Amino acid sequence: MTKAHLPAADPADATDAPSWVERELAGCRFRDRRLGQRLRKLLTHMARAIGGSLPLACQDWANTKAAYRFLSNPKVNEYAILQGHFQATRTRFAAVDGPILVIQDTTELSYERAQPRRIGSTCRVNSGRDKEGRYRMHTVCGLLMHSCLAVTAEGLPLGLSAIKFWTRAQFKGTKELKRKINPTRVPIDQKESIRWLECLRQSVALFGAPERCIHIGDRENDIYEFFCTAHALGTHFLVRTCVDRLAGDGQHTIADEMQEVKVKGRHQVEVRSPKGDASLAIVELRYRRIHVLPPIGKQKRYPALTLTIIHAQERHTPKDRARIDWKLITDLPVRSRADAIQMLDWYALRWKVELFHKILKSGCRAEETKLRTAERLVNLLSIYCILSWRIFWMTMLNRVIPHVPPQLALTGLEIDLLDELVRDQGPIVRGRKTLSDYLTKIARMGGYLARGHDPPPGNTVMWRGLSRLMDIELGARIGAQIYG
């Protein structure tokens, strides 16, 4: 980042600085003030027991019962819980310069319940054959979550900008409709694909600077309505394309035009085989600005667009893995090999949202909760999203901007505790310690060895260390109240 000074506490007031929970939920507005207080308390409890159950986090029946009541309250929903986090994301967005990548993706959360109808379903899968050899179909109980994660060009996650939960029951009948008419003629608002457009609009409205945003999606996001919506909002997109659309005068396709494009450069990338073996691959780069037409069934409703197609492909197929073959579509101009490589690097950061979902499922163990209704689950998942982002953010701070002051992410009490709990490896003057020094200490509390050849700490040791630190911080505050 060209300007890495995200909002931080003043070092002079660091001891009395509000906790990260207070800062992250400052923008929450409940009609009943007690709901806001309960949310802060619940988030604090859950942060001290990341991956644990609600009873483990709350520690007693009174707090556990209050947590269940909060999650069941009809006045509580995902937007009310995440409203403060969205505003904090906007603050971090405004504090950095340069383009921001808004990465969208969908994940499924599966559950086993005695009454699955109270939650909903995600899909039907083949459960094998019965005794008579017939295939059995099994309905998977669960929710789908579509999230937008704002990330800097260097890979630092600033937070969520939009989120949407749903079950497949809400779109019952869409498949039957597609059997009767051409799928391209089905209105977008009758498809699950509408989530891409809704989250795009919500993100643009939140940030208020559409020209700085590049909305990134995988092949599922190759939707012409999405391109038109981004164009109308004045924002940008970069999507991996899988549809060979009509181009030019409508007598040929994008693939026909790209076959005429000569190789305009080569780029070396590091890849891994299915066994995890690293190797270097050389991809050939082709790119061209193309006049793209809407699908035939939608040409009266949507305009043609002039877009850039980027094709990165290996010349030969390797023996131990699939050949790299990326086709990207964007409204941004690509005038040189460097521009094309930048687009590839930006799209490669799409994996950050996958890591966010991994933390949500593996770290917070979002699929192990025993709540029985979709409404309660959605509210709990919203809290898990804040925790997952926090873990991811702390992990990536250590890699992207390690040399900033520790007050960027830690309070004065947390800094003092870390200095007492984890001794420095070598002589370091306290005033010269960076955020990286203290984040490494947190990771060491979570099992990170911090040897000279070790890579930077990952998400697992960070969430373990953060949980321990919050418990110790609570003990320090209680001790100060008792003994002064």
Question: Which terms summarize this structure?
Answer:
single chain, 484 residues, alpha+beta, Transposase Inhibitor Protein From Tn5, Chain A, domain 1, 2 domains, ten-stranded mixed beta sheet, two-stranded antiparallel ribbon, 12 strands, 21% strand, disordered N terminus, DNA binding, Tn5_transposase, Transposase_Tn5-like_C, transposase activity, IS4 family transposase
Characterise the protein shown here.
The chain starts with 19 loop residues before the first helix and ends with a helix. By secondary structure, it is α+β, with helices and mostly antiparallel strands. It has 2 domains: 77-395, Transposase Inhibitor Protein From Tn5, Chain A, domain 1, CATH 3.90.350; 402-483, no CATH class. The protein is built from 15 helices and 12 strands. It has helices spanning 20-24, 33-47, 54-58, 61-72, 78-94, 174-180, 194-207, 224-233, 254-259, 337-348, 351-363, 374-400, 412-421, 435-445, 459-483; strands spanning 100-110, 121-129, 135-152, 157-166, 213-217, 236-240, 246-247, 252-253, 265-272, 278-292, 305-314, 325-330. Strands 1, 2, 3, 4, 5, 6, 9, 10, 11 and 12 form a 10-stranded mixed β-sheet that branches. Strands 7-8 form a two-stranded antiparallel sheet. Pfam families: DDE_Tnp_1, Tnp_DNA_bind. One of its GO terms (biological process) is DNA transposition. One of its GO terms (molecular function) is DNA binding.
